[in-house]
């Protein structure tokens, strides 16, 4: 009856922000078939020029592996997502990563979560492409207007 009493039907999320500063690309462009084939879920990626990875939405940090190369989040409305920093970075066993928050923390979109040592990664020849993958609760097409453009960590992209 009254529109202001209705719950939003868009997963209740205010959107998603870039998890790192850099060039926005489609998930299909990622040089790893696990991501580019959307085996883990749909999403997008950023080829970073920055070194601080932020929360892409308001929610809870539900997972940070010992390898520190990724983190999982769940938004208040149940969207589950994974932010994965670089390709084959799990093999670094945490080297070159600094966790800036802890598992179980409630964070706002744009809050710093992990920082990586850019020069260390470059010395190791690491592809730093950072993926945001929706692993559950997000069923809309990932239609980005930022593909091919530079975005700043915390900029709204979706």
What is the gist of this entry?
This protein is mainly beta and 158 residues long. It is built from 2 helices and 11 strands.
Task: Describe the 3D structure.
This protein has 158 residues and is mostly beta strands. It has a single domain (23-151), classed as Glucose Permease (Domain IIA) (Distorted Sandwich), CATH 2.70.70. 6% of the residues lie in helices and 31% in strands. The protein contains two helices and eleven strands. It has helices spanning 33-36, 118-123, and strands at 22-26, 43-48, 52-54, 59-63, 70-74, 80-85, 97-99, 106-107, 112-116, 130-136, 150-151. Strands 8-4-5-6-10-2-1-11 form an eight-stranded antiparallel beta sheet, with no helix packed on it. It is globular, with a radius of gyration of 15 Å. It starts with 21 loop residues before the first strand and ends in a 7-residue tail after the last strand. Residues 1-12 have low confidence and may be disordered.
Class computed from helices, strands and strand pairing: mainly beta
Number of helices: 2
> For the terminal residues, how far apart are their CA atoms?
29 Å
User: How many domains is the backbone divided into?
Assistant: 1
CATH architecture classification name: Distorted Sandwich
Strand order of the largest sheet: 8-4-5-6-10-2-1-11
Q: Which runs of at least 5 residues are low in confidence (pLDDT < 50)?
A: 1-12
Radius of gyration in whole Å, from Cα? Answer: 15 Å
The share of residues in helices is: under 10%
Work out the number of β strands: 11
Proportion of residues in extended strands: 25-35%
Arithmetic mean of pLDDT: 91
């Amino acid at each position: 009856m009254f529109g202001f009493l209705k719950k939003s039907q868009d997963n209740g999320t205010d959107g998603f922000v870039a998890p790192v500063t850099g060039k926005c690309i489609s998930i299909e462009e990622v040089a790893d078939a696990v991501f580019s084939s959307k085996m883990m879920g749909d999403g997008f990626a950023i080829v970073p020029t920055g070194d601080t990875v932020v929360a892409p939405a308001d929610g809870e940090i539900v997972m940070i592996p010992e390898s520190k190369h990724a983190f999982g989040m769940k938004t208040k409305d149940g969207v589950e997502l994974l932010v994965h920093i670089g390709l084959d970075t799990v093999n670094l066993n945490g080297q070159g990563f600094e966790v800036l928050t802890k598992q179980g923390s409630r964070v706002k979109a744009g809050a710093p979560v992990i920082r990586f040592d850019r020069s260390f990664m470059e010395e190791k020849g690491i592809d730093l492409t950072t993926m945001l993958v929706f692993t559950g609760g997000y069923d809309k097409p990932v239609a980005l207007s930022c593909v091919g453009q530079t975005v700043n960590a915390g900029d709204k992209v979706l």
